[in-house]
Amino acid sequence: MKSLLLVINPAAGKGSFRHGPAPRPPPFPHGGLPPPGGVPPQHGDATDITAREGAGYDRVVCVGGDGTLGETVTGLMQLPAEKRPTLGYIPMGTTNDFAHTLGLSHDPVQAAYVAAYGNPLAVDAGHFNNRGYFTYVAAFGAFTEVTYETPQEQKNNMGFFAYVLDGMRRLPNLTHRWTRVEYDGGILEDDFLFGAVSNSRSIAGIIKLKESVDISLNDGMFEVILIRTPESLLQLGPILTNILTSSFTSEDIIILHTQSVRFTFRDPVAWTLDGEDGGSHSVVQCQNTRHALQFIIDPARVGKETIPTLEQK
User: Fold this and answer.
1) Residues 256, 185: contact at Cβ < 8 Å?
2) Which of 157, 237, 252, 265 sits between 20 and 30 A of 64, alpha carbons compared?
3) 98: confidence class by pLDDT, cuts 50, 70, 90
4) Which of 133, 139, 134 lies closest to 227, judged by CA?
5) What's the start-to-end Cα distance of the chain, in Å?
6) So what's the pLDDT on residue 53?
7) What is the Cα Rg of the chain in Å?
8) Are 259 and 234 in contact (CB under 8 A)?
């Protein structure tokens, strides 16, 4: 690695980067580090910095949460593939879903060493409606709000019960959506409470797919998770239990594997991309871009079945 661009979000994880145990950028190993490429104070700044400066560096390292990582990836995807630098990630957010899937440490010093000395892994990216990209999830619906908006203190204090309470509180006001879902293997039409197009084992820190679910980060396939609208509070309980225990045995939860997927709604529906606002859309097309990025991961993770290296692919 000859040069490195450091992109930092100091507000990630409710400002823990500034106020937590690591008030300065984590130390990198000896080998040279140019001044930080930017400290983005506003939404979208990481995308602008990476798209503008990224081609001039061998590696970009993102310091922040899932949203900052998604912005950084969007910036990298604006560069030609041959000029796209490798991407390191120091997770400093609240949920750090994709870091969990990649097996990255949440300790900033250890993550910094991996970002500098780790091995490249080819990872797919999601193309969203020909207008942007997402790293690990594009989602719509009620559980998007429940998982991202349940207060962190409430999650810490009450755990599983916090989600049950929040889901029950919201149920009378939930808007279920008639949705047509066209995927590689067929078509579904139903009322869905939640939908996610994912390339991760963890979504919002609570929806987690077990090792038994066949997932690869670079096979060119998404995992699509759909949850039918419950008819009552009695139905909501088993659905939440299935989600939080990662059993997914309920017939109201559907998991699909597909390279592309198209959603059609009767009215515009709000989406989130990597936990950030993705706008409202009546039609959404998601396309998997295989081997779009080279993430830097812990060498100890190389050879794991779920995340094969470039050489293995």
Assistant:
1) yes
2) 157
3) confident
4) 139
5) 22
6) 92
7) 19
8) no
d(CA 122, CA 140): 27
258-300, pLDDT tens digit by residue? Answer: 999 999 999 999 898 887 788 899 999 999 999 999 999 987 7
Contact criterion met (CB below 8 Å) for 73 and 293? yes
Which structure tokens are listed for 249?
């045995």
d(CA 57, CA 92): 23
State the CB neighbour count (10 A cutoff) for residue 56: 11
Beta carbons of 95 and 124 less than 8 angstroms apart = no
Torsional class of 130: left (φ above 0), alpha (ψ -120 to 50), beta (otherwise) = left
The model's pTM: 0.78
For the chain, how many residues are written? 313
- Contact criterion met (CB below 8 Å) for 104 and 26: no
Q: What are the b/e assignments for 277-298, b being 16+ CB within 10 Å?
A: ebeebeebebbbeebbbbbbbb
For residues 94 and 205, the answer to whether their CB atoms sit within 8 Å is yes
Q: What is the largest CA-CA distance in the chain?
A: 59
| SS3 per-residue string spanning the chain | CCCEEEEECCCHHHHHHHHCCCCCCCCCCCCCCCCCCECCCCCCHHHHHHHHHHHHCCEEEEEECHHHHHHHHHHHCCCCHHHCCEEEEEECCCCCHHHHHHCCCCCHHHHHHHHHHCEEEEEEEEEECCCEEECCEEEEEHHHHHHHHCCHHHHHHHCHHHHHHHHHHHHHHCCCEEEEEEECCEEEEEEEEEEEEECCCEECCCEECCCCCCCCCCCCCEEEEEEECCCCHHHHHHHHHHHHCCCCCCCCEEEEEECEEEEEEEEEEEEEECCEEEEEEEEEEEEEEEEEEEEEECHHHCCCCCCCCCCCC
From residue 105, how far is each of 16, 44, 99, 197, 229 by CA, in Å?
16, 25, 8, 25, 36
Degrees to nearest 5, angle at CA 190 with 183 and 264: 55
For the CA atoms of 303, 199, 9, 28, the dihedral, rounded to the nearest 10 degrees, stands at 10
